[in-house]
Design goal:
With 126 residues, the chain is mainly alpha-helical. It has one domain: Winged helix-like DNA-binding domain superfamily/Winged helix DNA-binding domain (Arc Repressor Mutant, subunit A). The protein is 68% helix and 8% strand. It contains 6 helices and 2 strands. A two-stranded antiparallel ribbon has the order 1-2. Helix 1 packs across helix 5, helix 2 crosses helix 5 and helix 3 crosses helix 4. The longest helix is centred in the last third of the chain and has 21 residues. It is globular and about 50 Å long.
Length: 126
């Protein structure tokens, strides 16, 4: 299930020159504001080098930029104006993707699956 989901999501995101991992970083910054690489890696539950590569690609696309943090050593990542514009477009694309993925599944079924997956996640994190 995971592979078809991510492959299809990546197909949809391709028109924005993004992959799902890059979009996840952008979405986190949208919801939380500027963040350090460590913050992003911790939230995503991945190693910092993985996030460094992901953010590097977003920097190349000019979707994010580095700004100074509280001290000289800290660097924060935030969306650029282009990144904000692309994010709005991606939201529409993601909505189309979700409609396709959830076609024929009732609201009640969606809620039940979410509830069960949340339990599985909590079991794994114990």
């Amino acid at each position: 299930m995971y592979r078809p989901y991510t492959n299809t999501a990546n197909d949809y995101l391709g028109k924005h020159k993004l992959f799902i991992a890059q979009w996840a970083v952008m979405k986190y910054i949208i919801s939380s504001g500027p963040r350090t690489l460590v913050d992003i890696a911790t939230y995503q539950q991945v190693e910092k080098p993985t996030i460094t590569r992901t953010v590097q690609k977003l920097l190349e696309l000019n979707y994010v930029e580095v700004i100074p943090g509280k001290d000289k050593r800290e660097k924060m990542i935030q969306l650029t104006e282009l990144g904000k514009q692309v994010s709005e477009e991606v939201e529409v694309t993601i909505e189309q993707f979700q409609l396709k993925a959830l076609k024929g599944i009732s609201s009640e079924e969606q809620i039940e699956v979410s509830r069960i997956l949340e339990k599985v996640k909590n079991n794994l994190l114990e």
